[in-house]
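Example 3.2
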Amino acid sequence: MINIKIETNSILFSNAIKQDVPDGVSVNVLPYRENRQLGTETVIAIAIGVAQTAVAFLIPWLTSKKLTKHATKITIDEKEIALEYGEIKRIIHKQITIEK
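Structure, written as tokens:
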């Protein structure tokens, strides 16, 4: 299982990412409180669990959700990574273990 945490300040993105989720992927938008104070932003954390059988579907699905446009921070298995698809794909494929 690969664990991904996405932080965003887009409420629309947090709703959109819960749609059309591929088999083997779980999405959980963590509870948050909307912050309306001047100069502060709401931070929404989204936890995504990915079974190894679903890794092939993950990058195209995240691409369709325009992840790099809406995310402010991405963490894969507790390692913060750059907000670009090449880096996301590299880290995800590095996490795959092959079992005999």
